């Protein structure tokens, strides 16, 4: 996490660190993404930081996305949807 | 336009009925509701309420647009209308700013990056699901809501902004700050559990 790498046209380590979350989320404009990739290709320290943060996100997303809806809830929701649909199809029967 | 917004068209659905669209969303939607309400029964009630609203309000969904974002917006609205008022907000962690990328900073300071090939994976895989949930739940609600959306589904900042009715810059700042706070919480839990040493040279 130094600021030694970078030149007048490219990003410094500090720039990359500041934009890292947006970069990992795919939220940068293509030209910014390209400049970060150029920096990462030549700066081992920032590339290591980027891999670390990417892995933190992957791990957290994997764990938090493992939650399953209870089977009874899925049945209940299906029933709700069926009832609404049947009600719409037979409005006179209400 | 950002990189993700450019590729967003791929995830859009068209021409399917609501059951087919809703079914694959029930697992992530339940996880989302559970973290919002912090209670299984309330989470089940919330998701049923949202499904009912979705069925009844289907005409407001424009085919070809993002159904997942449309449905999650219904969940958020139902949550704010029916559940949030009953839960007083408790700030269980301090709101002072945590440094960015806290876990990595601590790992480097303690030299763990030199000793383990993949310290991020090892640290998080050793934390229990309960501890990760605890860390997320400890965030103040405005951060928890945005982080919850971000971690549960690959929503773009723009989609989260639209769902919550807040500016995209607010989403960005809440998400970035929420992630900082989350990393700090995770690290402190890992220290408390003896997964990482408190300081250099002191294991556990």
Description:
The complex is a heterodimer of chains A (94) and B (204). Chain A has 94 residues and is mainly alpha-helical. Chain A has one domain. Helix content of chain A is 69%, strand content 0%. Chain A has four helices and no strands. In chain A, helix 2 crosses helix 3. The longest helix of chain A has 21 residues. The termini of chain A are far apart. The model of chain A has no long low-confidence stretch (mean pLDDT 86). Chain B is an all-alpha fold and 204 residues long. Chain B folds into two domains: 79 residues, Rna Polymerase Sigma Factor, Chain: A, CATH 1.10.1740; 91 residues, Arc Repressor Mutant, subunit A (Orthogonal Bundle). Chain B contains twelve helices and no strands. The longest helix of chain B has 25 residues. The radius of gyration of chain B is 19 Å and the shape is elongated. In chain B, 39% of the residues are buried. Classes of the chains: A mainly alpha (94), B mainly alpha (204). At the A-B interface, helix 1, helix 3 and helix 4 of A face helix 1, helix 2, helix 3, helix 4 and helix 6 of B.
Strand elements of chain A, count: 0
How many domains in all of chain B? 2
Unreliable stretches of chain A: none
Strand content of chain A: under 5%
Helix content of chain B: 55-70%
Strand content of chain B: under 5%
Q: Which structural class fits the helix and strand makeup of chain B?
A: mainly alpha
Helix-strand blueprint:
The complex is a heterodimer of chains A (94) and B (204).
Chain A: H1 13-24, H2 30-42, H3 44-64, H4 71-89
Chain B: H1 3-7, H2 18-22, H3 26-37, H4 40-56, H5 67-83, H6 102-109, H7 112-115, H8 119-126, H9 129-137, H10 141-152, H11 157-164, H12 168-192
């Amino acid at each position: 996490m130094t600021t030694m790498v970078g030149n007048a046209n490219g990003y410094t380590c500090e720039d990359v660190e500041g934009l890292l979350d947006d970069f990992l989320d795919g939220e940068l404009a293509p030209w910014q993404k390209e400049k970060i990739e150029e920096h990462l290709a030549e700066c081992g320290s920032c590339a290591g930081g980027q891999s670390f943060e990417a892995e933190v996100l992957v791990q957290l997303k994997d764990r938090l996305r493992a939650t399953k809806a209870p089977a009874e809830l899925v049945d209940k929701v299906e029933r709700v949807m069926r009832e609404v649909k049947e009600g719409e199809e037979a409005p006179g029967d209400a | 336009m950002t990189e993700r917004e450019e590729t967003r068209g791929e995830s859009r659905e068209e021409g399917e009925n609501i059951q087919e669209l809703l079914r694959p969303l029930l697992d992530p939607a339940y996880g989302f509701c559970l973290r919002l309400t912090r209670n299984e029964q309330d989470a089940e009630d919330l998701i049923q309420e949202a499904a009912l609203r979705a069925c009844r309000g289907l005409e407001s969904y424009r085919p070809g647009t993002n159904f997942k974002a449309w449905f999650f917006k219904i969940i958020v609205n139902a949550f704010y209308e029916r559940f949030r008022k009953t839960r007083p907000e408790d700030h269980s962690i301090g709101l002072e700013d945590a440094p960015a990328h806290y876990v990595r900073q601590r790992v480097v300071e303690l030299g763990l990056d030199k000793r383990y090939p993949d310290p991020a994976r090892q640290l998080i895989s050793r934390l229990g699901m309960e501890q990760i949930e605890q860390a997320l739940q400890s965030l103040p609600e405005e951060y928890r809501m945005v982080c919850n959306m971000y971690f549960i589904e690959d929503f773009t900042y723009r989609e989260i902004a639209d769902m919550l009715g807040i500016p995209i810059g607010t989403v960005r700042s809440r998400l970035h700050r929420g992630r900082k706070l989350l990393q700090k919480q995770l690290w402190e839990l890992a220290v408390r559990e003896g997964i990482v040493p408190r300081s250099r040279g002191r294991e556990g």
